[in-house]
Design a protein that fits this description.
Layout: H1 2-21, H2 28-38, H3 42-47, E1 54-58, H4 63-76, E2 81-83, H5 91-101, E3 112-116, H6 122-125, E4 133-136, H7 144-147, H8 150-162, E5 168-172, H9 176-185, E6 189-194, E7 220-227, E8 230-235, E9 247-253, E10 258-262, E11 265-269, H10 275-289, H11 297-303, E12 310-316, E13 319-325, H12 329-340, E14 346-351, E15 378-384, H13 388-396, E16 403-404, H14 408-418, E17 422-427, H15 429-444
Parallel strand pairs: 1-3, 1-4, 2-3, 4-5, 5-6, 6-9, 13-17, 14-15, 14-17, 15-16
Antiparallel strand pairs: 7-8, 9-10, 10-11, 12-13
Amino acid sequence: MRLRRMIAVWAAKCAMTASVHIFHRQGVTWAGKIALKICPSILSELAAQVREDIFIVCGTNGKTTTNNMLCAALEAEGKKVVCNHTGSNMLNGVVAAFALAAKWNGNLDADCASIEIDEASTKRVFPYFKPDYMVLTNLFRDQLDRYGEIDITMNLLKEVMQTAPDMKVIVNGDDALSAFLAMDAGNSYITYGISEKVLDDKDSHEIREGRFCKKCGALLHYNFYHYSQLGDYACTGCDFRRPEIQYNASDIEIGDQLSFTVEGKRIGANYKGFYNVYNILAAYTAVRSSGIEAEHFNDMLARFNPENGRMEEFHIKGTKIILNLAKNPAGFNQNISAVMQDDTLKDIIIVINDNAQDGTDISWLWDVDFDRFKTANINSITVSGIRCQDMRLRLKYVDIPSLLEADVEKAICERVDNGCGNLYVLVNYTALFSTRVVLKRLEGQK
């Protein structure tokens, strides 16, 4: 078995190298598929070699950022960590993370693993190993034609959680759906959240997914919302309410930088977007829940560079470009909020595809508050991607004019040459990798 595992590791590493250098593709999924074909037990065998804790990160939004931040935080405390940094979060991507981290002798030298897993893929991954911790970021409506309604995802995750009764769930207590799931599954859980009102959302038209209690069906009363269904809630018909928060963020400041206090420590990061408070808090809670003091957490944040299109920054011919993923209404609304925190003049490119991984149903665009862009000091908005005409129509319905350029590279080059020098590129899922490749290439040109 060890010989087969060693061959699988070699094959995965070779496939990855060939994909990147010959075919110019990410190659992670292909590497994992080959490794699993050669050695069907490779994931179980390598996961068993992790000396301490295995963390997995699930949830609709924020998985990749939270997972990479958790990995960096563990490494800052001196741990050797296996991580699927690229966001390849289905079974083959998880296999690849372990296989590519293994040495050429087929063995793994790792203290911890920090693994992002797609919610629908947990059922395929959990038979291979049982994590010590699950970080549950949030549950929003996402790709209805792939995931179905949220109830389907919640039932799937509950079933998976119950196959790992010793796994502790680190849950966003501000999300009524995630909190109910953690309680209902029966696993021990640890909560994080924000107990003070931070934003004034009286003019928000966001869709609130968690309006009704999952326990009894009665209406939930909210003292306040943070965004979407996240906030301070209690059921009007039973005893279900926001749980006591164990890791609470207070004294929150947002703007060009984020900062908050938790456990008496001041945490600060050079990021935009209120949603990043939750990502940072989730990673911090995971580290602390495992018994680590997190003494170097702020040092990690100072060095941490969001990658893979999560508020990733590029500089091309004097233009600053921010690339960010926006794949569902809740995520897009938070992207709009982050853009609006920048009160300087800006150009925006919105790229919408409808490939299978995106979800072919793009009706979710009508649930995004694009009308907020009217007050965002915008120089221009360009629509691009396969469904650029649909995006243009959506903006037309809120009286926002837009430029049309289906080719993403042409759209970027045009704004670099004729824009205001400050560009935000908001993309949905399958546009992310190709757009990032274009930006990296253009940035590298003299």
